[in-house]
Amino acid sequence: METPKFPPEAKALTRAEKAFVNALFNLLKDRRFDEIRVTDLLRTADYSRGAFYGKYEDKFDFIEKITNKIAHLDVNEQMKFMVLMVSKASPEEQVRQVSAWYKFLTEYRPFYEMLFDGLFPGISDEEYCFRCTEIIGQLTQSHFGKITIDVDNGIDEKLLCYIASYEWIALHKYWKRSGYKQSLEEMARHTLYTQRDYILNMRLERSTL
């Protein structure tokens, strides 16, 4: 196996950002988003106004920036799997990496619960999918160089990235709908089965692995 070279790590959420996400999750259990004030968020999270307004203009700006940050983290974990695939890592290593992605989803479960339940104004799971698609394209180009698709039907790389992103989200939503009954490893194996063709149909030129 070639030595894999992963993309640069995306910045994880800070303790304050996680506290705000968890606070919003708890507040949305019995209120609508438009009924929640920033002061409610601060009181529930037990943080000062400066901790919030030093980064965000209002609660809408908070949702926008947190969504983008988590999308980058999400895709970064997916890219690690892609790297292992093209570097011909063993099936066991691939399962471990995809299991790590599901562990990441568990860590940020409150955010995804709100997203998939349609609780964010203007940000649906479809919009999240498009954001992940753009990030996948950017990271893939910067990490691997030029990409061509090794299929004969003329499908373009942006569409392939969208399909891949949609499949990852569909798997996550299935896991949620089933009450998270499957283990991380079980979901990893399901994911490997659905994503393998996506990776193998992609030809990476000027690879930096």
Structural classification: mainly alpha
Rg over CA atoms, rounded to whole Å, is: 18 Å
How does the overall form come out from the CA principal axes? globular
If strands are numbered along the chain, what order do they take across the biggest sheet? 1-2
Number of extended strands: 2
Estimate what percentage of residues fall within beta strands: under 5%
Topology as a string of helices (H) and strands (E): HHHHHHHEHHE
Largest sheet: 2 strands, antiparallel
Q: How many domain regions?
A: 2
Distance linking N and C termini: 11 Å
Please, how many helices?
A: 9
How much helix is in the residues? 55-70%
What integer is the average pLDDT?
83
Low-confidence stretches: 146-152, 203-209
Molecular structure report:
The protein has 209 residues and is mainly alpha-helical. The protein folds into two domains: 13-55, Orthogonal Bundle (Arc Repressor Mutant, subunit A), CATH 1.10.10; 63-204. Helix content is 66%, strand content 3%. It contains nine helices and two strands. It has helices spanning 15-27, 38-45, 49-53, 59-86, 91-107, 109-116, 125-144, 157-177, 184-200; strands spanning 147-149, 202-204. Helix 1 (15-27) packs across helix 2 (38-45) and helix 4 (59-86) runs antiparallel to helix 5 (91-107).
Task: Give a nutshell description of this structure.
By secondary structure, the protein is mostly helical.
Describe the SSE topology:
Blueprint: H1 15-27, H2 38-45, H3 49-53, H4 59-86, H5 91-107, H6 109-116, H7 125-144, E1 147-149, H8 157-177, H9 184-200, E2 202-204
Helix pairs in contact: 1-2, 4-5, 4-7, 5-9, 7-8, 8-9
